[in-house]
Amino acid sequence: MPQMSPNSWMTLMISTLMMMYTTKLMIIYEKKETKKKEKKKKNKTIFMKW
């Protein structure tokens, strides 16, 4: 592993952490959106039956 200055290493760590965090948030958001859509679909089917 090449020798890096502590400052650059910190920035690298922060950037990777930020990337992980943002991707996690996006995944959570997508899951919530799909759940909402599913609920809407279910409600429509229930109304159709009635």
UniProtKB/TrEMBL annotation:
Domain of life according to the entry: Eukaryota
Transmembrane segments: 12-29
Sorted UniProt keywords: Membrane, Mitochondrion, Transmembrane, Transmembrane helix
Name of the featured protein: ATP synthase F0 subunit 8
Organism: Cerynia lineola
